Amino acid sequence: MKPQTDEKLLLEGLAVNDKKAVELIYKENFNTIQALIINNNGSSDDAKDIFQEAMIVLYEKVRTGGFELNCQLKTFLYSVARRLWLKRLQQQNRYSSPGDSMENVVEVDDEIEDHERKNAELDMMEHAISNLGEPCKSLIEAFYLQKKSMQEIASSFGYTNADNAKTQKYKCLMRLKKIFFTQYKNGQ
Q1: What is the pLDDT of residues 54-85, one digit of tens each?
Q2: How far apart are CA 182 and CA 175, in angstroms?
Q3: Between the N and C ends of the chain, which has fewer C-beta atoms within 10 Å?
Q4: What is d(CA 14, CA 21) in angstroms, rounded to the nearest whole number?
């Protein structure tokens, strides 16, 4: 019952323009909406626009009074954002619906669960990387995040050649894999 109470308080805060309530709604829901938009031919700026529009829809509903949320807040925002995005894509001729009206109910619970599971796995991976230790952590980041070549890594890390750097990267990946799957198995 606590999440429903918290969401009710957030909606009450939104209705009176409470800055903290708005920030919390944004913090808890923007990443999900952004992933939806980016995974469906959109940009980060599109995601900001759509999220803002979805927040306006929610704000107008709570301001009029009598609005009763019959699902989780994140489900409501996701559904509104998805409709708004599909409508925009349709207007830009980037999406053609298969003859159905966009007013149909959009099932989003499975997509939200998948997104939350992926976020949890990414958090576990981030934790595993932080526990990896040096020089493995820096080497993995240099290759995968900074997109450095093996030759660049070899020279910056002091390896004799790119093949030695590649071998070390492999060893680091195996260590990272072991840390990650140990955490994953233990549900941390």
Answers
A1: 888 888 888 877 777 778 888 888 888 988 88
A2: 11
A3: N
A4: 6
| Tokens describing residue 146 | 């900074």
Burial of 76 (0-12, 13-18, 19+ CB in 10 A): buried
Kindly state the helix (H) or strand (E) to which residue 186 belongs, with its residue range.
Answer: helix 162-186
pLDDT tens digits along 3-29: 555 777 877 877 787 888 888 888 888
Percent of the chain with pLDDT over 90: 7
Question: Any idea what the Cα angle at residue 181 is, between residues 175 and 182, rounded to 5°?
Answer: 90
The tokens describing 40, both together, are: 């469906």
d(CA 187, CA 185): 5
Residue given tokens 């070899």 in the structure block: 154
Amino acid, single-letter form, for residue 164: N
Residue 143 gets which letter from DSSP? I
